[in-house]
Each structure stands twice: as structure tokens, then as C-alpha cells.
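Bumping with the actual sequence this time:
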Amino acid sequence: MTTSKTEEKQIAIPTFVMEPKPGATPAMLQPPQDSRLERIQEFLAQPVIASFIAGGVAGAVSRTVVSPLERLKILFQVQSAGRNEYKMSVHKALAKMWRDEGWRGFMAGNGTNCIRIVPYSAVQFSAYNVYKQFFEDTPGAQLGPYQRLFCGGIAGITSVTFTYPLDIVRTRLSIQSASFETLKKTEGQKLPGMWGVLTSMYKNEGGFRALYRGIIPTVAGVAPYVGLNFMVYEIARNQFTPEGQADPSALGKLGAGAVSGAVAQTCTYPFDVLRRRFQVNTMTGMGYQYKGIFDAIRMIVKTEGLRGLYKGIVPNLLKVAPSMASSWLSFEMTRDFVMGKRRENFL
């Protein structure tokens, strides 16, 4: 049997084997592994984790931007019939707040609000991504409007349940330094901070249950609000996306966020008023003591009319547009940055 010259050449090719260097360890002979930084980046790039981080950033940014209007809304909401300290237009009320308390008045309760809103928003966005997986035909598939509504509602309930004590403390901090005649403090008296209010409520107002006073109207309002917010945002987002492009511009995202926030808040605003009233229901000098939700609605309508259920809606609408606009924009920007600017279809 004969072999061709080509075969002879192939057979003649020598094989070189790399000999390990003296002192080489088995780890040195293994192929290079992914670095720790790459593993961390891969972990953070998961949709649920990226949403958790981006949601926290979005919450802090949006609340700080509109802190003066957020506090003014609360002051309007908790002011019952016969109380006229803040019965005035928005710009006059903001001017009064500035005269009475200065810049610190604009930011009163914002530190606690950010401490609350960071985990609240983080849990909300990440929980939404967890719940929507049960409705996806394939991973990353688009959800229908009603599926978004439902998943957003459940995500809202989840987030508010985890962070509600901080919300009720934020409300107390927002009004304790305001110039309500019946709440005036002794000159020079130091007002309690977040932990002081939490401790006082726990000891003097019924223990753990005091920290969840008003949770029922809160959940009743948060579930449809968050659900509408997610549903309307995606619809508006598609409308603001230029033809032939996958995503809207930054201005388009701002516009979609403003629309979604305004629609969701207007539809669910009376629940927000009830939440604030119950959060301060046991404070002396507020002029009301409600026995339950239906009693509160009856008393508000009786003494303040239907408009009483919409007290504070003007500063609220003025704040909700920039609030939700900045929230959605900062969420998308942070999420894309964490995920390495890879557009994942998980909204």
C-alpha cells in the first residue's frame, strides 16, 4: 500500500506539546475564567435586578424634584372644614410655606420620603417584572393592556405593604412644622425626627397597628394607580415613538411619563385623600376622628362637599407630571446603563 506525497507531508508534520513550566500550579493551567467584575455585571443585568436598582433611583429623583408640591398637597389634604391656614391658591401657599419655614419647609419630610420611596419604587418595578412572568407566553413577550394593569396593581400592593410605616411617618413630618393654628408648637421646641415619630406612634397610638393606620384605603388607591401607570405609560410610550424606531427620545419618555401619571392620579385621587386623613386621624387638633372608610367619606362629603375628596389635586397634578416624567426617564436611563445599554423587552 502506497501513500501520496500529501499524506506523507501530513504525517511528517511534527506535533509540539506545551510542557508546563516548573512550579506551575493546576489553577495556572486552567483556561482564564470570567472576572469577578464581569460576573457582577451579568448579575446586575438581569431584568428583575436592573429594575430594582433603576426603580430606587427613579423614586429618589422624582420625589426630590417635586418635594415642595408634594408637601403642599399633603397640607391641603389634611386641612378639614373650618381650617383656613392653607385655604389659598398654590402659588400663595408656596409663598406662605417659604415665609414660615424657608427652604427647609419645601423639603420637610423629603428625607424620610426618599428613604421610603427608594425601596418602595425599587420593589414596585422589580415585583412587576416578577409577576409579569406568569403571563408571558415566552420570556420577554409583550403583555396586553389588562395584563399590565393587573401586574402593576399587584406590584403596587406589594411595594406599599413593605414600606407603609415610612409613608405614615413622612405624612406626620410634613405637617408637624406647618403653621396650623391648633398644631403650633412652643417657641424653640425641637420637633421629633423620623425615628422619634415612629417610636412615639408605636408606644402611644396602638403599637404595630398604628404604623399601618390607613393601609386599606392606601391599598385600594395604590393598586389601580400603579396598574394604570404601567398600562398607560406603555400605550403613551408607543405613541411617542417615531415610526421606524424602537424607542422614543428622552422628551418622548418624559411626555409618556407625564401622561401616565396624570391619568392614573386623577382616577384614584380620592383614595389618596382618605389615606392622608387616616394617617393623621389620631393627632389632636386636626378637627376629625373617623371610625372607618365609609364614615370618613360620609363626613368629608357632608362637611366639605364632593370637592373635599379632591382637596390638593391642583398641586398634585402640577407635581405628578414632572414627578412621573422624571421617574420613568431616570428609570429607563438607569436600567439601560445597568444592563450595559441593552434594550430588554421587559416593560
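The C-alpha cells above came from a reply further down the thread. DSSP finds 14 helices and no strands in the chain.
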